[in-house]
Here is the input.
Amino acid sequence: MDWDDLRIFLAVARADSLSGASRRLAIDASTVGRRIARLEQVLGAKLFVKTPQGYALAPEGERLLPHAEAAEAALSDAREALSGPGDLTGQIRIGAPDGCANYLLPQICARLCEDHPGLEIQIVALPRVFNLSRREADMAIAVSQPQAGRLVVQRLTDYQLHLAGHEDYLRRHPPILTREDLRGHRMIGYIPDMIFDRELDYLTETGADWAQLTSNSVSVQMQAVRTGAGLGIVHDFAIPFCPGVRRVLTDAISLTRSFWLIRHADDRRSQRMNRIADALAQGIRAEVARLQGLITLEGPSQERA
Here is the structure.
């Protein structure tokens, strides 16, 4: 059995389609299809079932999957054993909610790339939970701890969020001194039926019944706040990127959430993955502390409460 055929099998199993696998492997979809057909012929088994949604694993494919993943892990271990504990190399895909992906990961990953020129980092920013079993990402950052699955879960750091508005918006409206003063203000938040994690349900913290301007993206919400469209709950670590955005009612409305690093259980044996996870964890802790420290240093003039 050819390892390259197994590699293509894994890509199709994780992407659920020939086209998705071809993009990840950088080969054309017709070649992917031919290689899968060849592997099925060699094994004498049907590995996939074509459905309207794409390619689903057949029972034989389900049985092959853990063995293919074990071969993948063994090959990675062999590369590490030969290369030793030097520079990190190869591709790593990190999934994250878009707030973390926009305001934290770019500078953290830039430093990693500087330290390890042979490392290729892909940041996938999606407002939903990642499926590591399908290898949508090699590791993922989440805002709540998963309760099921063969996963390694590590708490990274706490972070703070506050109600905020742009100084132009605040100048145009009466002072906000209590929660009652929020009545009549335009609120910005998540689309209710697209909140993919209960930790993102911020609106109840403000006492507001609804938000007039909503998005499934926290970055879009922050840009709406920055343009003076209203008030919204924002990450403290994002405020330094948005000049003019000021926190309000910091004593009355203050949220604390956590970031979690999630990895597939099989990756615990990989020294390379452990090193990347450690570097990512240290970077996120340091960057959250640095950016939130910038808000603290600005003191009361940053707030209107």
Observations:
- Confidence is low (pLDDT under 50) at residues 299-305.
- The longest strand covers residues 151-166.
